[in-house]
């Protein structure tokens, strides 16, 4: 027994006394650590589940048809859940038929992940494909619109493969890395079947490439009816260079092309699609209905007739005949269009007299595309992809190379003349009419004008000058 300033305490009482301050804080600290450990454990378990699901997407190249609802919910509510490892994913999805990236994707291993795409809505694949398809059949036309943000729809040989791969490298964008011709031939829902199988859910823009869709009225009609907000991207190219590239591409891929000297302007014979008429991009684009000739919304009948007449005069008699048949029966396209020329895809050089101008032109082009698509992060450096059959043995490659043409050779003068005549009409119609539509965006209009001005000028003048320099 002890006496503490007048109060007597037994040993038992002392044991029951409140613990000292140090002991108390030690106990609390231990309890807090246990709670923290528990929290950490459940956090790790939840991450492992999601990462496993995501890696199953990466490994197979396909996502499960639907994520379990708990996982979907978790991904929706937890912004820190890694939603995509872009470099892994593109490595798997880049099952590119026959193309190669000549300027290798820089920084693949250093790409940021997870991307901070908070400005984009989270897209999950909650509605199975069959239900989307049935809903479309039942009249809910635009039920799958949210799954298709953009489409690279043409023209062939105008850098569409580069565009698809380059956009797919952006942190906020996923793009199907092979051509999808579903809109031309199949049910309109089929395209989103590819989207759901090949692209991950999450905060991304989703897109596809089909370089012939711009020339295919069925594809344009389906876009208008079911995907009216899908942003279209259309590439053009100097008609002479386009024709040469297309012809040589066919040779490379083993097509039995006639000698170019035997190919006429009317494309009688087919020539596997390598037709001078197709370089008249205006004859195709007018069908979208973005210009007075393509739509009827003027209330002033005389003005309308005058406007339409002036525009019609930019088409050749043959083009006018086909427009007379086609224009009244096609659907007017509500889709926005981003128009570029292939030369705008060139990475600006780092030396030479006009380096600053080149850099400025390129930056403006990229900035306009960023705004058009609605992404906030910067694009990776430009690449150059050249599709065509690879891995031929040396003898076969040499045989095919020998059949390729240099369109600047004297013997192709006539072809160049036809292409330049068409190029002149294309240039005038695009600059005077098409780009004036509020639906049409051009990356750097000033530079684009300069480029199109050259569509009526023989590029061989420059090429031959370069050769002699
Ligand atoms: N960044 C860049 N700068 C300049 N040129 C470029 C670029 N990217 C692609 N290209 C050229 O575009 C041609 C291939 O076009 P596509 O991919 O649309 O071809 S395809 O329709 O998919 O077959 C092909 O043209 P040719 O080489 O003349 O055949 C590519 O070299």
Task: Give a brief rundown of this model.
With 469 residues, the chain is of the alpha/beta class. The protein has helices at residues 11-16, 21-60, 69-77, 86-93, 129-137, 160-168, 182-185, 190-198, 217-226, 239-252, 281-285, 301-312, 317-326, 355-373, 394-403, 413-432, 445-453, 459-468; strands at 2-4, 7-9, 150-154, 173-179, 205-209, 231-236, 337-341, 440-442.
Describe the fold and architecture.
The protein has helices at 11-16, 21-60, 69-77, 86-93, 129-137, 160-168, 182-185, 190-198, 217-226, 239-252, 281-285, 301-312, 317-326, 355-373, 394-403, 413-432, 445-453, 459-468, and strands at residues 2-4, 7-9, 150-154, 173-179, 205-209, 231-236, 337-341, 440-442. The chain has two domains: 19-85, no CATH class; 146-468, Rossmann fold (3-Layer(aba) Sandwich). It contains 18 helices and eight strands. The chain is globular, with a radius of gyration of 30 Å. By secondary structure, the chain is an alpha/beta fold. A hairpin with a 2-residue loop joins strand 1 and strand 2 (7-9). 3'-phosphate-adenosine-5'-phosphate sulfate binds next to helix 6 and helix 10. InterPro entries: NST/OST. Residues 78-89 have a biased composition (Low complexity).
Rg (C-alpha, Å):
30 Å
Low-confidence stretches: 1-22, 45-114
The level of helicity is 40-55%
Give the DSSP E fraction (strand runs of 2 or more residues). Answer: 5-15%
CATH superfamily of the largest domain: P-loop containing nucleotide triphosphate hydrolases
Helical region count? 18
Let me know the number of strands: 8
CATH architecture of the largest domain: 3-Layer(aba) Sandwich
Number of domains: 2
Q: Could you tell me the CATH topology label of the largest domain.
A: Rossmann fold
Biased composition (Polar residues): 110-119
Transmembrane segments: 30-50
Biased composition (Low complexity): 78-89
Keywords: Membrane, Transferase, Transmembrane, Transmembrane helix
């Amino acid at each position: 027994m002890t006496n503490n300033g007048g109060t007597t305490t037994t040993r038992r009482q002392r044991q029951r006394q409140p613990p000292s301050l140090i002991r108390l804080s030690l106990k609390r600290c231990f309890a807090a650590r246990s709670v923290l450990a528990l929290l950490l454990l459940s956090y790790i378990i939840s991450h492992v589940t999601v990462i496993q699901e995501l890696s199953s997407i990466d490994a197979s190249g396909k996502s499960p048809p639907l994520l379990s609802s708990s996982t979907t919910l978790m991904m929706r509510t937890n912004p820190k859940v890694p939603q995509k490892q872009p470099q892994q994913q593109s490595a798997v999805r880049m099952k590119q038929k026959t193309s190669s990236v000549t300027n290798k994707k820089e920084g693949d291993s250093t790409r940021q992940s997870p991307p901070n795409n908070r400005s984009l809505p989270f897209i999950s694949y909650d509605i199975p494909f069959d239900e989307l398809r049935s809903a479309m059949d039942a009249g809910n036309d635009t039920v799958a619109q949210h799954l298709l943000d953009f489409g690279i729809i043409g023209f062939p040989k105008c850098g569409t493969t580069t565009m698809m791969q380059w956009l797919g490298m952006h942190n906020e964008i996923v793009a199907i890395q092979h051509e999808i011709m579903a809109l031309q031939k199949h049910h309109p829902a089929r395209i989103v079947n590819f989207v759901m199988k090949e692209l991950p859910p999450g905060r991304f823009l989703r897109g596809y490439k089909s370089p012939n869709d711009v020339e295919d009225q069925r594809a344009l009609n389906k876009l208008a009816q079911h995907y009216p907000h899908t942003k279209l991207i259309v590439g053009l190219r100097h008609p002479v260079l386009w024709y040469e590239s297309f012809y040589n591409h066919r040779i490379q891929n083993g097509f039995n092309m006639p000698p170019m000297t035997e190919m006429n302007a009317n494309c009688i014979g087919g020539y596997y699609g390598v037709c001078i008429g197709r370089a008249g991009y205006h004859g195709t684009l007018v069908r979208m209905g973005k210009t007075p000739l393509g739509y009827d919304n003027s209330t002033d009948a005389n003005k309308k007739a005058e406007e339409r007449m002036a525009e019609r005069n930019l088409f050749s008699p043959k083009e006018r005949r086909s427009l007379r048949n086609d224009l009244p029966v096609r659907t007017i396209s509500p889709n926005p269009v981003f128009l570029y020329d292939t030369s705008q895809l060139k990475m600006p050089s780092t030396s030479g007299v006009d380096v600053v101008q080149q850099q400025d032109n390129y930056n403006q082009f990229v900035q306009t595309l960023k705004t058009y698509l609605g992404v906030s992060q910067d694009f990776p450096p430009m690449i150059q992809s050249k599709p065509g059959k690879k891995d031929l043995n040396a003898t076969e490659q040499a045989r095919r190379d020998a059949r390729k043409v240099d369109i600047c050779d004297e013997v192709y003068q006539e072809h160049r003349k036809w292409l330049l005549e068409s190029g002149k009409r294309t240039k005038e119609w695009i600059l005077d009419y098409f780009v004036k539509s509020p639906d049409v965006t051009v990356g750097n209009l000033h530079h684009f004008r300069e480029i199109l001005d050259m569509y009526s000028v023989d590029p061989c003048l420059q090429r031959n000058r370069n050769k002699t320099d």
